[in-house]
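Figure 6 in text form: structure in, sequence out.
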């Protein structure tokens, strides 16, 4: 069951339609031994990267240095821990877990490992919540696999605000560096496209308009560009566009599946995951123009790492 759920999570990351049933990965029969390293999130100090991996048999939150060294398990829990997102000041990690039956946001102190539950909804999607620039709020997606909307919650878990209300999927939100906008992916016009709206949910605007599936929009640190993935060229690739949706360009140009982009704090690098070297996904690092991709994780070879148990 846990392995099947992780495959569903992989589908959310690579298609973001969150539609279960026709993925090649979900069609695999029997337990999969494929190690998958997914959904990297960069620390504000520029030296560390958090990511999700099933190398221990179920999804866990791991940490490594930007060169791929010193990988360690941060969660080490029997539950499913996914959707990791680093706060801007670097002292907290937000992630989604079902450790208390339902799927909710948890906040971990990166200094001492202390953990607290932020939401009590039980219906969050297993995709990362996104921090506001001042780290006082998180925006997240909640609902069902066919009908999900975006919400914000303050860091104390006291004030919840609904931002979207559509009979389809709104997911994968990302806050602009100045705090005024939120970009997200939606199926409101039939297929998955990228939209931007005011941070209060008003004035949504469509940024991509293709027959393909687009997903995982992430703002550059200076707010001038948005990285995302798309299968408009026949397979999933990492793209970048200006924040107004213009000048869309392919960065990866690889026959494999490339997804989950995240900018380095200085905007010079983009970390992402790909299956270009085999069946499973690995974490890669490239220049922000797509040059010089470097592999950071190594599948089953990374299994023997130091575990760090949260309090």
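Output sequence:
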């Amino acid at each position: 069951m846990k392995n099947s759920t992780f495959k569903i999570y992989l589908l959310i990351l690579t298609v973001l339609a969150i539609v279960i049933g026709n993925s090649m990965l979900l069609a695999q029969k029997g337990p999969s031994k494929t190690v998958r390293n997914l959904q990297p999130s960069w620390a504000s100090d520029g030296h560390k990267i958090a990511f999700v991996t099933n190398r221990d048999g179920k999804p866990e939150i791991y940490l490594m240095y930007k060169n791929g060294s010193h990988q360690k398990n941060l969660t080490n829990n029997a539950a499913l821990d996914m959707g990791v997102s680093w706060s801007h000041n670097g002292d907290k990690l937000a992630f989604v877990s079902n450790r208390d039956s339902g799927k909710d946001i948890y906040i971990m102190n990166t200094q001492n490992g202390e953990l607290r539950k932020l939401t009590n909804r039980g219906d969050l999607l297993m995709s990362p919540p996104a921090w506001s620039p001042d780290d006082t709020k998180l925006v997240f997606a909640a609902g069902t696999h066919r009908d999900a909307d975006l919400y914000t919650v303050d860091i104390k878990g006291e004030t919840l605000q609904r931002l979207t209300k559509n009979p389809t999927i709104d997911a994968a939100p990302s806050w602009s560096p100045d705090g005024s906008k939120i970009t997200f992916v939606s199926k409101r016009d039939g297929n998955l496209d990228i939209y931007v709206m005011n941070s209060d949910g008003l004035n949504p605007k469509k940024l991509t308009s293709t027959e393909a599936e687009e997903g995982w929009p992430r703002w550059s640190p200076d707010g001038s560009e948005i990285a995302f993935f798309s299968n408009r060229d026949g397979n999933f690739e990492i793209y970048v566009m200006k924040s107004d949706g213009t000048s869309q360009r392919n960065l990866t140009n690889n026959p494999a599946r490339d997804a989950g982009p995240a900018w380095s704090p200085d905007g010079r690098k983009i970390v992402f995951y790909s299956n270009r070297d085999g069946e499973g996904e690995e974490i890669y690092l490239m220049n922000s123009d797509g040059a010089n991709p470097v592999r950071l994780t190594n599948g089953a070879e990374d299994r023997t790492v130091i575990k760090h148990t949260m309090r």
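Caption detail: The helical segments are 2-14.
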